[in-house]
Amino acid sequence: xxxxxxxxxxxxxxxxxxxxxxxxxxxxxxxxxxxxxxxxxxxxxxxxxxxxxxxxxxxxxxxxxxxxxxxxxxxxxxxxxxxxxxxxxxxxxxxxxxxxxxxxxxxxxxxxxxxxxxxxxxxxxxxxxxxxxxxxxxxxxxxxxxxxxxxxxxxxxxxxxxxxxxxxxxxxxxxxxxxxxxxxxxxxxxxxxxxxxxxxxxxxxxxxxxxxxxxxxxxxxxxxxxxxxxxxxxxxxxxxxxxxxxxxxxxxxxxxxxxxxxxxxxxxxxxxxxxxxxxxxxxxxxxxxxxxxxxxxxxxxxxxxxxxxxxxxxxxxxxxxxxxxxxxxxxxxxxxxxxxxxxxxxxxxxxxxxxxxxxxxxxxxxxxxxxxxxxxxxxxxxxxxxxxxxxxxxxxxxxxxxxxxxxxxxxxxxxxxxxxxxxxxxxxxxxxxxxxxxxxxxxxxxxxxxxxxxxxxxxxxxxxxxxxxxxxxxxxxxxxxxxxxxxxxxx
Length: 491
Fold this sequence. Notes:
The chain is mostly helical. It has one domain: Amino acid/polyamine transporter I, CATH 1.20.1740. It contains 20 helices and no strands. The longest helix has 35 residues, at 237-271.
């Protein structure tokens, strides 16, 4: 029977998981979308903010590693938080992960289409809203089909995309830095300085806002862990892939960030920060000249890769929740031929398409507002994971310095940093003037209203599920097995 079919075990290895983890963050797109606003906020200290934003990500990556060693479940945060803190909190953690995919997939596909057309000279098509939206929907459907056909096929596509993306980004960084030292820059170049790595140079609200943008840049690396049931050496390889993803992203972001600030100078980026992703396109023309299509193609392939990989955490989380009766069982169906969760995968894609189309009818700025709301969901479920790690291993934290710092203190510090950023986000988003659209929805900024809407819908769905299928809510909290702590036993 189809219901008895499992995910395909040992379908991919560590390197494939690592590539998927990196691509899920959409490095070129993230840089394109964030570097201008970050520099506008903190000036030449932008590389320092990129470095500081890495700290909570690495600490939470440690939590993912140790929790995955105890429980190799593709639902990750949903399953782990349920084990450590109970079904009610665990359910909401899973809901947050699913909704991130819904909010961001349409935007990523839109960027992939827009920059792809710009790279090949189809500027008029990129400016045509109907053409762009139609191609975006078709792209989401195509990438969803790749996800359904199989994890191996997905990994092969990702291998190609990450090579193209990293090569293009490094080419941009090398050319930019070389032109700075050669004195052939066309803007107001500055020679790189070690002081740029100090994130506290700007301080105050500017630092907080910059860190929020920085967290968005790193978000998505945990997709490698969502594939834990399909990765060889599932107890450790996915967790290691997650940690190494954040480290590789740090090196990439710092390299390009320093190159951008050095070549353009803070004045140019501050003046063009409102252009969001397209400030990178303009800068590419300044640095690369006739070769600017290289950077445009990097952003396009970056968003294209992330369109596919962002579906993975949402679909695998829905599968995990359905298997434990936290969602209807239909979302737990696995394709008998491809061994992938086809129902949940297509479900995420369809809801994401509907969200993209509907929000675009409101305004293009409303789509950016929905992306801003992502920071609430990201900070929430990452923080939950960090807390769950310390709680689940609580009886073993004093057994060694490693346990105390890597399993207890580190994840908790990461969680506290993210909760602080979450609180700052709520305060900032309550003011409509701080949104992209600048309009008021019920007296609040649209991003906060979107976040509240998602939370309320989640609460309604959760209560309805509790009343109709109570089995999941009878699960009890547990603690880590001592052998798991020592690394001598897998689930």
